[in-house]
Amino acid sequence: MRFQDVLRRQHGVITRAQARACGMSPALVRRRITRGELIEVYPGVLCSTAHRATSRMLVTAAARWAGPHGVLDGVAAAIVHRMLPRQPDRSRPVGVTVPHRVRRTVPDGIRLRRRDLAPADRVTRDGAGVTSPGLTALETAATLPDGAAFLDRVLQRGLPFAELLAAHDRNIGAAGLPRARSLLVEAADRADSRAERRLIRHLRRAGITGFERGLPFGPWFVDVAFPRKRLAVEVDGWAFHSDPERFRTDRRKQNALVEAGWTVLRFTWHDIRDRPEQTVARIRRALGP
Q1: What is 191-287's CATH superfamily?
Q2: What's the pTM?
């Protein structure tokens, strides 16, 4: 192990234990600190002044302080996952989670949270323990003023919505999750809107016409309606299944449509994305000749 190699790999960060493994005596480390070549940012964790001070250096130092049982969480984890380029507010402490059994004296600059994470919520990235992408996105979104926009960007870059949902369900009751849940519902609504647009593209490609999107019906709106055929097509997203009041409202709408002589078809996002031919075929059959 070479001193410079460790610094390069760890964004300018090295622990005292790693310095010893590189052959540096405690006296040599002290001299380098005295000369201003190294700075002890956390107990036992050093940063090289020859490297540019960045958010990645700061969170890497926190990860080294956290040790093998700790993980970065929130914004710090988002930086490691490359969901954020930098710490939005450098005056805020770096978030670290440790199990309940771990007792540490918390230094300045660290916000320590004690909780026992599920194995699925702990991952390793670039040698640092961090919360999983799903939990990281939720907890970070809950702390940002533009949390909704952040969550949308993360989803657009490929994080599966199912992973967000699973992380949410594993951590119900955790601090910050109520706001994260509201942001998740909003993201689901936007995903549902995209699903409706995708369904309309499928219908147009199949040569099916005569539909309206968002047709007013009493106090409600029909997702995709064929007024002449009295056929209502509803897209059920995550918010429909997880929000009891929304579920009841949709049931009242469906009952009113049926009482008024409408046929109601319900499809999920997976139906529209993964089984478009079957979905369009079912709508075509319901429309009849």
Answers
A1: VSR Endonuclease (3.40.960.10)
A2: 0.70
